[in-house]
Write a structure and sequence with these properties.
The chain has 362 residues and is of the alpha/beta class. The protein is built from eleven helices and nine strands. The chain starts with 12 loop residues before the first helix and ends in a 6-residue tail after the last helix.
Length: 362
């Protein structure tokens, strides 16, 4: 569940962020209108090959990845908005007043059952990370990943080997849960929540009996503070932004593309072009939106296709393809082995519990 498309109220920092964005726009406006300065072209060519050459040049040392639901669809997790197959298109069975209600905090507090029924279907641990997830892990292993900003809540980035310091989980995560009572806020781990969900129990706090909710960001909740604090230091220092599997329609996540410097190359790997600037502004070279096609395009590259195919193609150009394929094969085998051991342990535990129950007299 890849929850990836939640629109949220912003923290107090949001007004500062909007002001900063307006200042960037005005700088670009005056720079272009008055001819003050010109953008340096970092890429040799606006192609995947040009991006690969830049990464291999040694000049690219702070890569930021921005990812959404599209990087998890090949794992079997539906995205939100694809017609027919997206999550919102298949929620009729939950008898919701409207699809987004299942992630609305007020609705959840009154009717938690639909969310936890859905959570059982899409719970972390039932899916394996994709080629794309492991490509991001390789960027970390190569020492060039500054951070991965994810809209997803499926924890597959963690399962692929990214750790807390590598990740900004912009829309929260299933990894931890908390009591919803502001007077309590007791924390629970993934295993505790998993036991409740798969026992068809509505999770309630051991301390105060209030609902316990995974730490995913629902409509009506603020994004994590870490999102706002990290982006202020990460994006000005980014020298390559890789955007994968996101429509760039949900704010404030989508606005991150405009936070890198004017010369920072941006690569989009997606099923369709996204995040493009207003056509008029694009013609003038203004604003922070993506510009793939105008005569003034100088840094934005689009690979149209699946995220896995895009990562394999880039890995091939980098000379990493065999290494990436071997990593995926090895890690998937490890996960399958761990899952078999867990199932065997669960079966033994259930058998032991059944054997210890006193038999009823005939």
């Amino acid at each position: 569940m890849p929850g990836q498309c939640f629109l949220n109220e912003l923290s107090d920092d949001s007004s500062e962020d909007e002001a900063a964005g307006e200042m960037d726009f005005l700088r670009n406006l005056f720079s272009s209108t008055l001819g003050l300065g010109s953008a340096d072209k970092v890429l040799d060519e606006l192609t995947l090959s040009g991006v690969a050459h830049y990464i291999n040049s040694g000049k690219c040392k702070n890569i930021i990845c921005m990812v959404g639901a599209g990087i998890s669809t090949s794992a079997g997790i539906p995205d939100f908005r694809s017609p027919g197959t997206g999550l919102y298109a298949n929620l009729q069975k939950y008898n919701l007043p409207y699809p987004e209600a299942i992630f609305q905090i007020d609705y959840f507090q009154e009717h938690p059952e639909p969310f936890f029924t859905l959570a059982k279907e899409l719970y972390p641990g039932q899916f394996k990370p994709t080629i794309c997830h492991y490509f991001i892990k390789m960027l970390k292993d190569k020492g060039v990943l500054r951070r991965c900003y994810t809209q997803n809540i499926d924890t597959l980035e963690r399962l692929a080997g990214l750790e807390g310091g590598d990740l900004i989980e912009a829309h929260g995560t299933f990894y931890t849960s908390h009591c919803v009572s502001s007077c309590c806020r007791k924390e629970y781990n993934l295993d505790w929540m998993k036991e409740k969900v798969f026992s068809d129990d509505i999770p309630r706090c051991d301390k105060c009996s209030s609902l316990v909710k995974p730490d995913i960001v629902f409509f009506g909740e603020n994004l994590p503070v870490q999102f706002f604090t990290s982006m202020k230091s990460d994006f000005p220092n980014c020298d390559l932004l890789i955007i994968m599997g996101t429509s760039l329609k949900v704010q404030p996540f989508a606005s991150l593309v405009s936070r890198v410097s004017k010369i920072c190359p941006r690569l989009l790997i997606n099923m369709e072009k996204a995040g493009q600037a207003d056509p008029l502004f694009g013609m003038l070279g203004l604003g922070g939106g993506m510009d793939f096609d105008s005569e003034k395009a100088y840094r934005d590259v689009a690979y149209i296709g699946t995220c896995d195919d895009g990562c394999l193609a880039l890995a091939d150009l980098l000379g990493w393809k065999t290494e990436l394929e071997e990593l995926v094969k090895k890690e998937h085998a490890r996960i399958e082995s761990d899952n078999k051991k867990e199932k065997a342990s669960d079966s033994k535990g259930a058998a032991a519990a059944a054997a210890s129950e006193p038999r009823k007299e005939e």
